[in-house]
Amino acid sequence: MGSKSVDEVLDAAAGVHCSALRLDGPNVQFSASSEEEPTTSGLENGHQEPFVIGVAGGASSGKSTVCKMIIDQLRDQRVVAVTQESFYYGLTDEELVHVHDYNFDHPDAFHTELLLSCMQNLKHGKAVDIPNYNFKTYKSVPNARKVNPSDVIILEGILVFHDSRLRDLMNMKIFVDTDADVRLTRRIRRDTIDKGRDIKAVLDQYSKFVKPAFEDFILPTKKYADIIIPRGGDNDVAIDLIVQHIRTKLGQHDLCKIHPNLYVIQTTYQIRGMHTIIRDAATATHDFIFYADRLIRLVVEHGLGHLPFQEKQVITPTGSVYTGVEFSKRLCGVSVIRSGESMENALRACCKGIKIGKILIHREGDNGQQLIYQNLPKDIANRHVLLLDPILGTGNSAVQAISLLLKKGVQEANIIFLNLISAPQGVHVTDTLEQMIISHRRHSFVTIKIVSGSCDMKPWLRRILQFLRNLYQHSKL
Ligand SMILES: Nc1ncnc2c1ncn2[C@@H]1O[C@H](COP(=O)(O)OP(=O)(O)O)[C@@H](O)[C@H]1O
Ligand SMILES: Nc1ccn([C@@H]2O[C@H](COP(=O)(O)O)[C@@H](O)[C@H]2O)c(=O)n1
Ligand SMILES: [Mg+2]
C-alpha cells in the first residue's frame, strides 16, 4: 500500500485536491457541451423516449383487437397506433390486372424502408406523415395521415418482427397466437362481408399465399416475441398484465430499461422541491446541508429495501403470532472519500452501530496513475455492502471502488451503490466493467436522479465538499 499509512492518506485527503471523482482524467467522456450544471432528466422535460410495442401474428389473429384493448386501457396516456398495412406498396396497373397472383403476405409487399424511417422518427419524438392504403383500389396515397409522437407507440402487422431493424426499435414484442381455423373463419367473414370479396377468391388466396406465408415468414418470427397471447382479444388476463407492465415502464427512467439493476427513486413534488433547493446556486449552506441530508436519507432507505429479508415470527402484545421479516444483519457501509462521507450520517441514522469502511482513490501527479487506499471491515467478503458516493459522474472512481470490493471477495450481487445524482456515462461504465461480468447477479444502483449525459459536475462536487466541511464543524460543536 505504499509508504504512507492509511490514516495519513485519509487525513491528507481533507485538503482541496480530492480526486474521488476525477473530472479531468482521461476517462472524461461527457459529450462536448458548455453546460456547467446538470440538466434535468428527459423524463421531467417530457422528452422521454416513447415506449414502442410491436404486435405481430397471422392475419385475422386479433392483432388490431388486442391493440384496441391496450389503447382503451391506457386511455390516460398518449398512445398512437401505426399499422403495417398503411405501408403496402400500391399496385401498378399491370399488377392490378393480375391481382389474384399478387402475394400480399410476402415481406416484399411492404415499403419497409419507409416504415422504418417513420418509426425511427417517432421514436426520436418527431411527427411523421404516413401513407394510406386502400384495400378496394389497391392504391397507396403518400403522406395521407400525420402521426404525432406519443408516450406509447404501437406498431401492428403480420410482419412487424420480420426486419431486425424494426424489432430493435421495440421495447415490447407481442405475438398474437390464434388457432389457424379461427383465423380462416374470421378472414372469410371479413373479406366477404367487409371487403365484398368472392368466397372462392378468398379461399384461393388463402391456400396460395396466406397459409404458406404464415408458415414461411410470420410463424418464424414468433421466437422474437416477449409475450405470446393465446386467444388474442379473449385473453383479458394477458392484456391486463401487458398494460400493467407498460405503466410500470412509463414511470421509469429510460436508463432503467437498459440497466435492470438501476433503481431510480420515483420522483414526487417533495423530492423535486428538495432538488430544486440544493441545485439552486443561491441556496444558503445550512439549507443545502439540511435538504441534501434529507435526500440522502431517502436513498439510504431505498437502498436498505434492496437487502434480502428472511421470515421472522414474533409474538405481539396481545399474544398472537405475527409473521414478519428481518433483514440481513451482515451489512456494512463503504464510503468513497471524501464525498461519500457526506452520506455516512444518514446511514448511521438508519442502521444503528453499522460498520463503515472507507476507500480513497488518490490521483498521483498528472499522469493519471491512481493509488487506492482502503480501510475496510476484515470480514467484508461476508457482508452486504452499501457503497456510498453522492455523485456518479464519469464512473471512474466507482469502477475502482467496486473492483476493489470484488477483489476483497465481496459478491457483486451484495453491492448496492447509493448515489444522489448519476450521469448515464457513470452508470454505463460501472455496469459494463469487464471483471464484473463474471458474476451471475449484477450489483445494484439506487439513485434519486439521472442527469443528462452532457454535464459537468465540478460545481456539485465543490458543494458536497463544502457540505462535508460543515458537517465536520457541526460535529465538533
Ligand atoms: N376474440 C374475438 N372474438 C371474436 N371475434 C374477434 C375476436 N378478435 C377479433 N375478432 C374479429 O376477427 C376479425 C379480425 O380481427 P382483427 O383484430 O382485425 O385481426 P388482425 O388485425 O390480426 O387481422 C375482426 O372482424 C374482429 O372483429
Ligand atoms: N390488398 C390487400 C392487402 C392485404 N390483404 C391481406 O391482409 C392481410 C393482413 O391484414 P391483417 O389485418 O389481417 O393483418 C394479409 O393476410 C393480406 O393477405 C389483402 O387481402 N388485400
Ligand atoms: Mg389488423
From TrEMBL:
CDD domains: PRTases_typeI, UMPK. SUPFAM superfamilies: P-loop containing nucleoside triphosphate hydrolases, PRTase-like. Residues 267-429 form the Phosphoribosyltransferase domain. One of its GO terms (biological process) is CTP salvage. One of its GO terms (molecular function) is ATP binding. Transmembrane segments: none annotated. Residues 52-238 form the Phosphoribulokinase/uridine kinase domain. InterPro entries: P-loop_NTPase, PRK/URK, PRTase-like, PRTase_dom, Uridine_kinase-like. It comes from the Eukaryota. Its EC number is 2.7.1.48. It catalyses: cytidine + ATP = CMP + ADP + H(+); uridine + ATP = UMP + ADP + H(+). Its cofactor is Mg(2+). Pathway: Pyrimidine metabolism; UMP biosynthesis via salvage pathway; UMP from uracil: step 1/1; Pyrimidine metabolism; UMP biosynthesis via salvage pathway; UMP from uridine: step 1/1; Pyrimidine metabolism; CTP biosynthesis via salvage pathway; CTP from cytidine: step 1/3. It holds the Pfam family UPRTase. PANTHER family: URIDINE KINASE (PTHR10285). In the N-terminal section; belongs to the uridine kinase family. In the C-terminal section; belongs to the UPRTase family. This is Uridine kinase. The gene is LOC103626500.
